[in-house]
Design brief:
The protein is mainly alpha-helical and about 160 residues long. It is about 55% helix and about 0% strand. It contains eight helices and no strands. The protein is globular and about 50 Å long.
């Protein structure tokens, strides 16, 4: 299997948009996603992004599953700091996760099926809803839903 650090350094020379930590995070989030699917007995995780070129560890998650796993893992690991941290790594939308995944696919760190494409990630979730709303106080959420402004913002 290829050396992860060396390969990511090569990717970053070709595509400097994302921090090394963004790539390491996506790999960890993929591992988390596979573990969660296995815990629930989800047979979909046993179909082929692959983990390296190790056939004994070959399992597939599709884009939708991966994005949901990334969202869950991010919130679990970084809580209210999730959005800020992702932005610091250069990740501002689900499309960025797709770019990272396919940069890794192109260097044989991950595999893909014939149905997987970077465009699949464009139909992901809204970052503010996914990473900020879970941490807003209930009062602010109610105002946001009703379209009302807070007293401070009305002044």
């Amino acid at each position: 299997m290829k050396d992860f650090k060396t390969t990511i350094s090569a990717i970053q020379k070709e595509d400097p948009r994302y921090a090394y930590d963004a790539y390491a995070f996506v790999q960890q989030a993929l591992d988390y996603t596979l573990e969660q699917r296995e815990k629930t007995g989800d047979p979909l995780c046993l179909r082929t992004f692959m983990l390296g070129n190790n056939p004994s560890r070959e399992r597939h998650v599709d884009c939708k599953e991966l994005l949901e796993g990334i969202r869950e893992f991010t919130l679990e690991q970084y809580g209210p700091m999730s959005l800020l941290l992702l932005h610091a790594w250069g990740i501002k939308a689900c499309e960025d996760f797709g770019n990272i995944v396919f940069n890794m696919v192109n260097k044989d760190l991950l595999g893909k099926s014939d149905r997987d494409s970077p465009e699949d990630f464009r139909r992901g979730f809204d970052f503010v809803q996914a990473f900020m709303l879970p941490f807003l106080p209930e009062e602010k959420l109610k105002m946001k839903r009703s379209g009302k402004k807070s007293l401070k913002s009305a002044e």
